Structure formats: C-alpha cells, structure tokens
Amino acid sequence: MKALIRKASFLPLGLFALSVVWTFLGYELPAVLLGAFIFTTLGYFSFYVIENHLSTYVFRRVLEAAFTIFVIASLTFLLLRLVPGGPFDEEKALPPEIKANIEAKYGLNDPLWKQYVNYMGGLVQGDLGESYKYVGRPITEIIASALPTSIQLGVYALLVAYLLGLPLGVIAASKHGEWLDSALMIVAISGVSLPSFLVAPLFVMLFSFTLGWFEPALWMGPSYYVLPMVVLGIRPAAGIARLTRASVLEVIRSDFIRTAKSKGLSWRKVLFKHVFRNSLVPVLSLAGPMVAGILTGSFIIELIFAIPGLAKHMVQSVTNRDYPLVLGATLLFSILLVVANLLMDLVIAMIDPRVKFT
Amino acid sequence: MRFNIAGTILLSSVFLVLSSLGCTKKATLDYGLKVEETLRINLSQEPPSLDWHKSTDTTSALIEYNMMDGLTEFDLKDPELSVIPALAESWSPSNNSKKWTFTLRKDVKWTDGKAFEAQQIIDAWERLLNPETASQYAYFLFSVKNAEEYNTGKIKDFSKVGVSKNEQGQLVVELKAPMSYFPSLLTHHATYPIRLDVIKEHGDRWTDPENIQTLGAFKLKIWDHDKALVLERNDGYYGAKARVKNVYGYMINEYSTALGLFESGRLDYQNTIPGNELATLRTQPTFRESPILGMYYYGFNTRKKPFNDVRVRKAFLYAIDRRQITDLLGGDMSPLSGWVPKGMFGYQENVGIQYDPEKAKKLLKEAGYEDPSKFPRIVLGFNSNENHQRIAENYQAQIKKNLGVQIELQSEEWKVYLNRVRTDTPDIYRMGWLADYPDPDNFLNLMTKVSENNHTGWSNPKFDQLIDQGSSITDKEERRGIYLKAQKILTEEDVPVHPIYSMVSHSLVSERVKDFPINSMDKVVLKGVSLK
To answer: Cβ neighbours of residue B348 under 8 Å, at least 6 residues apart?
Structure first.
C-alpha cells in the first residue's frame, strides 16, 4: 500500500510539471488540466490522510485555519476604519451632500457594527463586495483576474528557488571546506542580502537592454517571464542553498550514512538516496513561510516589471482606502498561506516517516 | 502493475490536454495589432471606471475624451482655449445668460448606429444628478436650476430641473443664476450624453467593450483589466476621422520601467516624469514641456495664532523668493504671485506679493515678534512625496534665513494628510489645484466662504461677492477687472494663501508620432495624431 501511495504521487506531480511547462510556453492553462491537477492532488492528499488516519488532525487544522481567517478578517476590518482618511477623500474636496450620497451608496454611513455584520454576512456567502476605486467591479472578479498571474509568478519563482538552491547546497556540502564551497556561500550570502529593487534594474539593464535576451517588462510570454521569476526566486534560492548545505552536512555525519557507506554503496548513491532525501525535511518545511515571502515580495517585482498581479492591489488598495479590496486581498493571502503550510506539513510527513502528527 | 495504471492515467490526461491545445489561446497582450498603425501610450494605471458619470481621475478621463464627445469642446489650438461646437452646432444665451439654448447636430450616430438626440443629454444629466448614482462630479451641474435640490433629494421630480428639449429638438437649459462660461462646463465628461437603454440592459457591465456605446473618434476595442486597453478608430465618426487606427494603452505604474520601454522603442508616449529626471531628459528631442492650468500653493490656518494676524501672513509672503523654489524643481515652472495660473484668462503677472525680505522683517516686528525665538511653534504639513519635501525644506530654509523663524515639517501619507487638513489644519498646509474648466472662476471659487476646499478658515464677504459677480458677467474686459480685484484681496490684502508656482506638464513623445496634442488643460485628444 505504501508503495502504491508513493507511486501515485507521480500523477499530481506530473500534472503539476505539465501545467508549469504549459503556462510557461505562454499558453493559457486549459480548465481540464487545471481541474485534473486539483482533482488528483486533493485525491492524493485525501487518500494519504485517510490511509494514515489523519482525518481528525486535518479537520482540526482546517477548523483552526477558519478561526484564524475569521480573526484576520475582523481585525483588518477594524484596523482599516482606524486609519485616518477615507476612500472618498480627494484633493478636490467634495460638497457634503455629494459625499453623503456616496457614503449612502456604499453603506458607509451605517453604524460600524452594522457594516461589520453586513460584511461578514457577505463573506460567508462568498460575496466580498464591490471595489470603491474600480467602480462597479466585484472584488471576486478583480481577484480572479489577477490571481492566476500572481500564482504563475510565485510558482516559477519557487521552482527557480528550489532548482537553484538544492543542487547548489548539495554541491557546496559535498565539497565542504574547499574553495567551491566558500565561493558558493559567498554568492548565496550576496543573494540573500541584495534587495530585489536593486537586482531587478541591474538584470534588466544587463539581460534586456545590453544583451537583448529577455523582455524588460510586462507579462506576455516566456521571454517576459524569465527576468521577474529569476529576480523573485534568487533570494529564496540563496536561503535554500545555505539551509540545504547545513542540513546535508548534518546528515552526512549521522550513523545511518556510515552504515550505508560500510555496506559498500557508492558515494553518489549514498549522497542522493540517503543523504539528500533526509536533508530535505528542514528545507521543505521552509516552503510554507517562503510562499508568504514570495507572495509579499512580489509586490516590488510586479511594480518594476509591470506585471498584472495581485500584490499590486494588496498595496494600492490600502493607499486608496478601498476597504473591500484590502479585505479581499488580505483574506486571500491568509488562505494561501494557511493552505500552503498545511500541505507542506503533510508532504514532510510523507517524506520523513519519523514525523508524527498529534 | 499498479504503477502502470497510474502511468496510463497520466499519459491519457496528457493526451487529453494536448488535444485541447487547439482551443486554448496564447496569453499574449499584443492582440494582433500592427505597430505601424498603433499608437502606444502609457496610461500608468488601470482606469478605475469608464463610466463618464462616475470616473474622477485623469486616466479614465483620457480614454473617455477619446471615445466620447460633449456638446462643446475646447479649441486646443487656441492658447486661451476658446469653446467651439462639438455635438452642439451652436448655442445662444438669453435672459442675461441665465437661459441657454443649444442646437444639436443631426448627423451624429452612436457606434451601434442609433442617432444622437437631445433626450440622451437629459437622460445623462438625470443620471449624473440622481443621488443613487452617487456621482462625485454631480456638482458640475449645480448651476442648473434645481439640480442641487434634485441631487440632495429635496426634489424628486426631475422635470423641475432646468433642462428640457423644445419642439425643434433643441436643448434648453435654465440656470440658477447668470453664468457666462456655462458652455465651457459642457466640455467635461461628466456632462456628456449617455445611452440609458445600454445601461439598463447591462448594469455595471455597460462599460465592457462588448456592451458600451459611444460616439467619439475612437471606440473601445479591448479592456483587459490591469493589463492593457485598446481603442480603435470609429469609422462612423461625424467629425474628421482619427488618423491612427489603434491606440494601445499600457498600464505601467513604475516610471523607470516605462522609460525603459520608451527608450527601447516599445512605447510612444509617457506623461509622468519624476522631477530629478528632468535635467537629463530635457536635452532629448522626445521631451515635451507645456504650461498647464494648475497651481501649487500653501494655505495658512488663520483660525489661530500666529497666522490669525494678517501682518504675519504678509511677512511670510515677503520672505519667500519663489524663483528659488522653481529653480530647485528644474521643471521650468513659473513663479506665481496671483491666484490665476499662467496661460489662463485673468492671469496677471504683477498681482500679489513679491519677494522683499526687509519688508518681511518689518512686518513681523510690527506684529509683535521682535524676537523671532518667541515666535510660536508652527508646523508645515504636506503629503509624503519627494517634490513636496524639497519645496517644504526650501521654504523652511528661506523663512529661517529671512525671518529667523523655525518651521517644523510634517509629512504624512496622502489620505491621512487630506484628513488632517480638513479636521486639524496645520499652521501651513500644502495643496494644489488643476483646472476642471479653463475659467478663472474655477480657481477663485476655491477660497469663497462656502468652498469645501478653503481650509484656511478665512473668508471675506467682499471677495465672495466679486466671485458671484464675475461668473454672471459676459463682458470679457469687465470680468478681467473683477477677477483682478478679487485676486488683490486674496494675494495682497488678506493673504490667507501663499501661491507658489504655476504648473507645467512634462512628457516624452516618440519621434515617430506627429501632431501630438500639447495644451494647457493637459487634455490628450488623439484624433489628430498620426504616425510617420
């Protein structure tokens, strides 16, 4: 049974890889593929959860998450009202009667508790209200049009981070103490410390205007995706490289590696089958928080590369005091974060049999 | 064996996906437009709304002005921006410019072929004024009889509002009070006609490209939210047809990104340029500069010490050399001592208080501040922005040098600042104003007692009376005299405000673009533009 579970993971992983390649080539993701991916992933996780008697655990986590999100919604709602300046304060002040009409239209003249109840009531039904700034556009529609781009960018950046970070970390660890190790770690430290608003223009200058390899901005196809995803992924990549190196070094020294070596396995086999696998746990557990980092960090990237994503709304809606959009964006990010954390915990349990849920 | 099942499913789903290749479109943003017939401009942001009754920002207005026309329009070639016919062929005032009759063109068709008629103006004004529409620009028509009452709900019957059509199909407008410049209000998008049938059918979605009906030189082809907007030439346009086939609007917020695209030939027009870039860009052939009808000023809180004393206010005005500020900004702005910006009817170079540090010191002494260190603590408020910061620092330094008075600077986030100015006005506050319509009334009106934009706490019945009088007179020279008097009260006698400079707009226009409109209202009307 365990073996089957392991083998079946090829399905969602394969579909995931296919989706990434598909969108990267500049095609819109067909609903069939997206549906198949979501279906197999959920199916796979549910199967794993049931098989390992984790339903109560997952159920509890989901309840906790729902509560967390409720608290976040309430706090955001209240904090927004505490910030001075309202959505309809403009440089050209409005006559009071006109302001009254606008406030009546959006229910802003109701007592605060009533506005809160109305908002929460809508939220439960999946209605996030209408934007104040983008007149007449429902928040759900704004999110639905911006989210795919943000996720696309986030996933690419995450892949860049892991595909760069993991091998570099392993190489550095296997050459521990040699010049290559030091060189890689110096690069990694610079990667962590250089802010993306500096790296982005440098990359644009070099790879776009000087070399002409990639497009400098916008989000229209593969040659447009490369620079933003690399700039966004490079910081987490550096972090992953450092963590992988530390983790690999720790695992190499453990008893079971010595056993594996003394069994006569080749060093390469030991490194990739035993060491690498076991060093993955701390690196993967980083993924949850990293998703948050990448999502919030993408604001600057979206701005610099003029990418039509959600991070922009997240910041600009606050400046505009567009209450429904601020709430919508905040809730969405919270949900993404909570889900990412839960899934990562499950993935870690799958990889590392020592992990036990209570 | 089991794994083979998984493999089969995987393979078949891959096949399924690949077979649907034909029905997925490539997510590009060029929409198959040809560069040689497309003008590519940067809108800087997503237009918040293309509903011309509800939008209040310049991005939306730019699109609206290119896909719609009003009863009148500005002659953009005339430096004084005279009002010329558009949807209205002609108009005539009667009853001492209290009543206006507009004769409408009969050859105008909407994009779906329906004819334009007076009723569509009446529908539009009803919608604009209807409290349920909650339009911010409803006050644009408050000069129309009973319009304000309808907007506040005091009158429910729209037929009592002073707009109607007569038997000849003319539009008849009755005003509350005589108003000589009324036709110039009708250049504004808030007053444009609308198709109520379209709005009824599609609700809030009526501005989507597949639903919207317009009658201007361009029509909305694509509106890909947050990505791009495309206008296409309207071949059924009643006037001279647009010379360029498509206008592609990018939504690039970050200036350096836009500049990169501009310099690499991917963008034809960029209109916001940060102050510190002006010196480098000025030398390039693509750089454009034009005075616009806007001004930058400081206001004094005259409700409390020390600025409740007119001598202190005057001392501050005499102590500032505006030229230093405009030089610092490097944008070729004109120092402004009066209250009407350069380029507008009523502008007077010599009105207002000019730099004179000796007089400044004398006035401060007279006000009882022999020892400047005894001067109360004062705060200069502005919203966080590099230019505002530089101006405030220069003001602070000049006041320190010429009066010995220390000013504290306080910068706040935009909306926090707006709230502060209204509820807890700083001793000195920063504001600006851009003309809604090119008439001095639009500027002088700001400082009347009833104005929502007068945060100084100052008012003067004589000034208010002059403003009322000025708007009702048709004789140009007589008006000029009245506005001169009003400006003297505001900037020489009572000085609740400190005008600083008259604004200038800067833009980059690619060399392949011909006849790009540059005018003092900063209106980007693209129908006359062509590409080399």
So the answer is: B338, B340, B484, B487
- CATH code assigned at A306: 1.10.3720.10
Does residue A196 carry a pLDDT above 80?
Answer: yes
Considering only CA atoms, which of B484, B442, B491, B446 is closest in space to residue B466? B484
Domain that holds residue A147: 143-311
Q: Express each pLDDT in B126-154 by its tens digit.
A: 999 999 998 989 988 999 999 999 999 99
B454 touches chain A (CB under 8 A): no
Tally of domains within chain A? 1
Q: Is A161 among the domain residues? A: yes
A176 within domain boundaries:
yes
Q: Which residues pair with B163 in a beta bridge?
A: B173
User: Do residue A135 and residue B51 have CB atoms under 8 angstroms apart?
Assistant: yes
Residue A271: pLDDT band (50, 70, 90) is confident
Contacts of A11 in chain B (CB under 8 A): 6, 9-10
Task: Please give the structure tokens belonging to residue B495.
Answer: 């000085």
Looking at per-residue pLDDT, the higher value among B144 and A17 belongs to B144
| Interface check B414 vs A, CB under 8 A | yes
Nearest residue in chain A measured CA to CA from B413: A319
**B284: alpha, beta or left, given left = phi > 0 and alpha = psi -120 to 50?**
beta
Q: Is the pTM of this model over 0.95?
A: no
Q: Which of B51, B135, B226 faces A308 most closely, judged by CB atoms?
A: B226
pLDDT-derived band at A358 (thresholds 50, 70, 90) equals low
A126 in a structural domain? no
Whether residue B222 contacts residue B14, with contact meaning beta carbons closer than 8 Å, is answered with no
Chain B residues 47-106 with CB within 8 Å of chain A: 48-49, 51, 54-56
Give A164→chain B minimum CA distance, Å: 27
Can you read off the two tokens belonging to residue A203? 């990359």
Secondary structure element (H or E) that encloses residue B299, with its range: strand B287-300
Residue A1 is assigned to a structural domain of this protein: no
Probe site for chain A from B212, B227, B451 (most A CB atoms < 10 A): B227
Strands (E), B332-478: 334-335, 378-383, 407-412, 428-434
**Looking at the predicted complex, does its ipTM rise above 0.85?**
no
